[in-house]
Design a protein that fits this description.
BirA Bifunctional Protein, domain 2, eight-stranded mixed beta sheet, Rossmann fold, RNA-binding, 496 residues, elongated, five-stranded mixed beta sheet, 18 strands, alpha+beta
RNA sequence: GCAGUUGUAGCUCAGUUGGUUAGAGCGUCGGAUUGUGGCUCCGAAGGUCGGCGGUUCGAGCCCGCCCAACUGUACCA
């Protein structure tokens, strides 16, 4: 049975839509999170954390049906048969938390939190089944000032992360205005709910397909590039014209002009007018605060279709980059949010207004990496102490401990290979230097310290291997007692 | 879900009208150099050709079904 049965070996594989994170990505993300946290704290928000698992009904999902219990969310049954789910966003759990602790919390309650969320959907480029969000919410304020603050905080956060003004925009709209447009084309009432949804989705596609695509989706339908056909909303000509006019209402002059243009061009009922008034107020507040160049009212913003009840907003990156394959890629939306006045109220007899937004940390990080705003380069590894005489392993460990006590990252080579492999290992670890003490050095009471970065530079000029080995480039011999000092010198040289 | 494309070594890919033992580059490991990361040279390991069935004297190649991945689209609470 000496031979391993390869055909039965377990295949190491990661489920689709999930990723492993290496050291560099973790450190980069930590720095980002800390930057975001700083902005939220500055605005006066305080942290709160809820678990990854909630009762399924708390998340707003009906009981999973028995055939496909995991449609959209990852769900499972507790031992008391109650359905639990992995959270798919941070808003629904917050609503549950606020409702459950309502009496103790200050109102309005302003909080932030970050964490992993899970969606059981088909993954795609920039779309994962586990990803991180960083949310902030104000619960208990119905004022458009709360919505305006969210927009401004989003803008500040994006800039704090190193994205320049002009490379992003916060687009703002209002669900009540969209409802008003629906009414004006005769799609009011419950019997038109399905059609309204189709129209809203068509509007939402403006930045993806352009006006032509939206027009097709409002009418008969649209064929995608694989030849598959998407059925349209089937509006009549007048309806299509009204919606297209609405979508085109965004003014380059300014937010007030955009609102005015909608007001003039689309006749809508009281709810739509209320929405426009809210947009006006947001516009006034953000302009007064000096944000009018970054926060734009945009009639085509729709956002997720379920729980938003008023203003909705979306942070979009405007620059283009190329992906690994050299194709042009846009990052698009990296965050969004809106007012959800009904969500907390589901748990209570009273209605509780709330507004908030969410930043897609994973996607934003991809964008920042592409922009070169975060370093993608490997971190400096530890100093590696090599082992040349196996029976003196205690002495090598002592050197490692000495370095650690001096506050220097260091490790003992723990593998079983020879000197060459040990140097290769140190190289792969991106070690700044290695410590070497063979029998010769031991006899003299000295050690060798080799600067790997400098050695790499010097190797470019040495073509003959015998010379390369003989020269022992970038290597210094010092008394054992000078170990820490010699290593420090190399670290200082590399840092400078 | 729907549509299209693609599945050959760890990775990127060749593989002729169906014809013997399926190849290359990179990577990995080892040696030249048993005490030194690079370069060079030499060598080795690594494959049920996505799976099952069919046609055929013979299938990586042809046919059918299935699976998976990718892209688009839909959905995204």
């Amino acid at each position: 049975m000496a031979e391993k049965d390869k055909t039965n070996a377990l295949k190491a594989r990661l489920p689709r839509g999930l990723v492993d994170r290496h050291a560099g990505a973790i450190k980069t993300a930590d720095r980002m999170l800390s930057t975001i946290r700083g902005v939220y704290e500055l605005y006066g928000f305080e942290p709160v954390e809820t678990p990854l698992i909630e009762y399924t009904d708390s998340l707003g999902k009906f009981l999973p049906d028995q055939d496909r219990p995991n449609e959209g969310v990852f769900s499972f049954q507790d031992d008391d048969e109650q359905w639990l789910s992995l959270r798919y966003d941070l808003t629904a759990p917050l609503a549950r938390y606020v409702a459950e602790n309502y009496d103790q919390l200050p109102k309005p309650y302003r909080s932030y939190r970050n964490g992993w969320v899970f969606r059981n959907e088909k993954p795609g480029p920039g779309r994962f089944r586990q990803f991180m969000q960083f949310d902030a919410d104000t619960v208990g304020s119905a004022s458009p000032a709360a919505d305006a603050e969210m927009c401004m905080m989003m803008a500040d956060t994006i800039e704090a992360l190193g994205i320049s003004r002009g490379d992003y925009v916060i687009r703002v709209n209002n669900r009540k205005v969209l409802d008003g447009v629906m009414e004006s084309i005769g799609l009011a009432g419950p019997e038109n709910a399905g059609k309204r949804l189709t129209v809203l989705r068509a509007i939402d596609k403006l930045d993806k397909f352009g006006p032509e695509g939206v027009e097709l989706l409002l009418g008969a339908g649209r064929k995608d590039e694989s030849g598959d056909f998407t059925k349209g909303a089937g509006l009549d000509e007048a309806g299509v014209a009204t919606v297209m006019k609405y979508v085109a209402a965004q003014s380059s002059v300014g937010n007030e002009a955009t609102v005015e243009s909608i007001r003039q061009n689309i006749g809508m009922g009281p709810s739509g007018v209320e929405g426009l008034n809210e947009l006006d107020q947001i516009s006034v507040i953000t302009t007064a605060a000096g944000y009018s160049d970054r926060i734009k009212i945009d009639p085509s913003v729709v956002r997720g279709l379920e729980y938003y009840t008023g203003p909705v907003f979306e942070a979009e990156l405007l620059f283009e980059t190329v992906n690994e394959k050299g194709e042009p890629a846009r990052f698009g939306s990296v965050g969004g949010g809106g007012r959800y006045d009904g969500l907390v109220g589901r748990f209570r007899s009273e209605s509780i207004p709330a507004t908030g937004f969410s930043i897609g940390v994973s996607r934003l990080m991809a964008a920042l990496t592409a922009l070169g705003k975060v370093s993608a380069e490997a971190e400096i590894g530890p100093v590696v102490v090599t082992i040349f005489d196996r029976d003196r392993i205690g002495e090598y460990q002592k050197m490692v401990t000495e370095l650690r006590n001096a506050g220097i990252r260091a490790e003992l080579y723990l593998g079983g290979s020879g000197p060459k492999a040990q140097l290769k290992y140190a190289d792969k670890r991106n070690a700044p230097c290695v410590v070497i003490q063979g029998g010769d050095e031991k006899a003299k009471g000295v050690i060798q310290v080799k600067d790997l970065a400098l050695g790499k530079q010097m190797s470019a000029e040495i073509t003959d291997n015998a010379v390369w080995r003989e020269a022992r480039p970038a290597q210094v011999e010092v008394p054992e007692t000078d170990l820490v000092a010699a290593v420090r010198e190399i670290l200082a040289r590399q840092a400078g």
